[in-house]
Every structure is written in C-alpha cells, then in structure tokens.
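Researcher: Sequence of Peptide-N-glycosidase F N-terminal domain-containing protein follows. Predict its structure.
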Amino acid sequence: MFKKSITLLFSFFSILIFSQTEKTIKITYEKFYNDKLIGTENPIITFASNDKTYITSKAIEDKTSESPFEYIVSNQSKVSFEKITQLSEESLIKTKDTSTISSYNFELFNDTKKICGYVCKKATTIINSNHYTLWYTTGLNVNAGPNVIGQNLGLVLEINRNNNFIIKANKVEKIKFNFPSTDKIQTFDNLTYQDLVWKSRFRTLPVFSNEIINFSSESTSNDSILRFANGTIILKKVKFPKIKSNNLSFIDLTLQSNGDAYDRTGSLFIIPEDKQISFLEALQKDVSVLPIYENGNGKKYQGVANTYNFTPLLELMRFFTPFGIDKYNHITLKDKEWHDKVMYRQDISDYNTFLSNNEFWVGAFIGNYDKGGHKISMNITIHNEGTKTKESEFVLPLFNTTNVMEMAGQNYATMFDSKEGLVVNFELEKDFKNVFLRYTSTGHGGWENGDEFVPKKNTIILDNKIVHEFTPWREDCGSYRLFNPASGNFNNGLSSSDYSRSNWCPGMVTYPTYIDLGELKEGKHTIQIKIPQGKPEGGSFSAWNVSGVLIGK
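Model: Prediction complete. Tokens:
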C-alpha cells in the first residue's frame, strides 16, 4: 500500500440544456443505510465520457423531482466543476466551484473485487472525521462516480461511509447521450449560491425587521406595525400558509440594545381572536376590557386565563434581553470580546395545527422603561419532512400571566402568594388519548431574597390530582457572559449575568416543560398552578410569569 494526494471536488445535483451526442457510460447507483436499500424510486445516475461527467438522479431525468434540486457537471481535468440548482420552475442558478477544491491523501490498496463485472481496487480516506472506503475501476477509461469524491482515481463504483451508508453501482451501460450545456444559466459566487440554495429549502415568513421596542409616548404605529403600551408592544398581521402537522416550524429572533442596559423580560406571542373578547381589543381600548381573575388575595389580574368569552395570548417564545449588547460594547474588560447581537431560535412546531392557513396578529413585548429600548428582527421558518412526534390535533391556550401590558396598567402576576395560586377551567368537546401541557415558567423579583434568585417548586394539579412537580432553575447563566457588556461586576468576582436564576438567563430563551397529562375525557376539567411565592420586602415583590398551552393528539 502507498499514499497519494488526490484532488477532491464536492457537489450535488441540477437541471440543464443539452449539447452534442457523445459515446457515454451510464452508471446507476443504489443507496443503502444500515444494510437496507433506500431511495429505490430515485437512484443516482451518472453519465461519463472521456472528457465530461454529469451527476444527476432518476427523478431529475424524468422531470418529476420537486424544486429545489441540484446536480453537477464537470470536465475530466477536474480543475473545477459547476453546481446547478433549479430553485423553482422559473429560477435556475449555478456556481463554478474552484475555491473549495481540497486535496486529501488516499491510501491505495491492492485489494480487488468485482462490481457490475468490472474489477475494482480499494482506496480509503477520512473527510470531516468520516471514514470513506472507495472501490474504483480504470477499465472503462473514464473518471466519474456518484459524487465527486475520488473521481481522479477512475470510475468509482462504490462509496462506503462509516460502514453504515453505501452508494453502489448496480448497472453500467454504454449509450449515446447529449451532455448538458450550462452557458446561459445565471452564475453566482459560491457563497451567494449556497445561501440561495439553502434558503430555497424552506419557507420564510418575515415578521419584524429592525423594529424598535422602547418606552416612549412618541411611539406611533404605521401601515404594517402597530405599537401599544408606550411602544413596549409591537404587532404585525401575518398570514400563515398551509402547514402540515409533521412540518417543523421555527422562530428566529435577533436582538440588540438600542439604549436599554438591563436584562428584561421578552415574549413573542399570537393573539387569538376566536371569542367575544380578544387581547387586541384591550390594546386598542383599555386593559379594563379583559376578564378578571381573582383568587382571594385582594388583587385583580387582567386577561391571564381562558374563559368562556376570552382566550389568553398564545406564547411562542419567552426570552430575556442581555445587559446592553452592542450599545454598550464600548465597556472594556481584559480578554472580553463582546458579541454584537444575540440570536434566539426556538421550535414552535407544536402549534402547526393552530397556525396553518390562518391569519393572526403576531406580537413582541419587551418590558423596559428606556426611550432607546431594544432593536429586534424576527422571522418564522417552515421546513418540510419533520417528525411525527410534533403532530397535534388541537391547540388550546389555557393561561399566560406575563403582563405584556405592564406599561398600560396590567398587573404583575403575584397571584401565587395565595394558596389557590392560579386555577383555570376548560372544556373538551371530545376524548383525547394523548394530551400534554406545554408549560413555561420564570420567577421574578430582582433582589437578594426575590424569587428570581430563589428556587421555588412549581406544582401542576389536574382535576384535583398532582400531575407534575419541579423546580424551574438555570445554573448555566455564566456561559453567556459575552452577551452582557453592561452587566455589573461584584466584589465576589461574579458578574450579575453569572448568577443562577429561576429558569432564565440574560440573553437566553426559556425552555418550555412538557407535562404528560395522558388521556383526557370529553367535558369539563380544572388545572391549577401552585408556587410558594416569596413575600414582599419594602417596595420589592416577587412574581411568576407562567404560560400553559394544552396540546392534544
């Protein structure tokens, strides 16, 4: 055995226009995963002559492949290759790839075996920590393969990656073939091409772009963005396309400080308008239009629970701003290079059934009292080929105690100082065998003994039976120090952003907890949340922002 440096070219598959007929080798490849044949309806097909290679698939050749699809054309010099992608029926793009050509050391062996009647030799290499074994033949005087790996060796008839994924030729034919011409296809640089291809593989719903969420009496709405509560809430009407129940849907949120230096509660939400009263009406008129929840502690809480005539906000994401990211990056500390923005991303596929083919007001809230406030951008992306574990038949928002109208008079969620806590009644129209509660909980009270810094057990009770108890807590907040340039540094050597908190960190998303409720029968039910909320000290008090959405399968 000996080693030899071979130039490798990487690529995928596309669609084109065709030129003169040439004598060609056609190779059809099967794919195996863990010894099982896969993708039988769409095998890889490679056409190779003395001076050209065209790698495609059966579906592309039959014109049955759904966009986007990608394939390659290369010449036998292997100095460069062209990747071509049909993004849609109207859009075809390509790139000439020379910058990513890399050299790998193949280890060549004298081992042989026959594939499709041709004697093949063995070669191995490692690419990105993956172990590849190739079997190639020089008996046909062409350089080709099911992809560009190892094409300089000869005709690659088998590629084995990590002994669990195999591409292997099952037919080799000699035919006449019109090779594609790519001359008239729009060309992009490789990075732009990759970005266009990647973005074509999912749907993007733009929601907010560089919008300011601040506290100012000068905040005004425009034709597309509505502003409420002195600018601390922004809304946009969004039309959702048809979403399959097993698609995957994500929120992408980007945030920078535009003046506010503190960690603040943020929430992204949907306003349901399925009942007589909606949260939108309260925003347009006054918080007093919302139904009141009382539990005997002498306080009134507006719009926190599902009632016969009101559905609370459906929370998409609970997030927390860091201490002054970007705006306060001028604060310098040795060996600290601050990030200039924080990016949050969360799976919201549980809500596909609720969102599909509907139009909603989508909102963003950041509780702050700063005229500069924060700047955000937000998109929702929808991806095919998801997972059945996310499929749901119904979505029912039960409660949301985050006082997003804080700057317009909505009370803080201090109802947990009563032994009753939060009690919500709801009714199901039929039996469901698999129901769970998507529960998000964060504790607040930002002084030494406040519930922000004191672990507190959450108890969830369904129909007078405890179904779940846990203590929401985050101990990894110090991992995000570089998001927090304005975080205070204390005498004990810690920064404020380092401290563990009740299920949140400055600059992070709060993860929901999934509580399995099992089978629920048709009819009326009651859910209760109990938390041993801490007592006020002077002018300071604790509160708990909890949201719960019932999801049934």
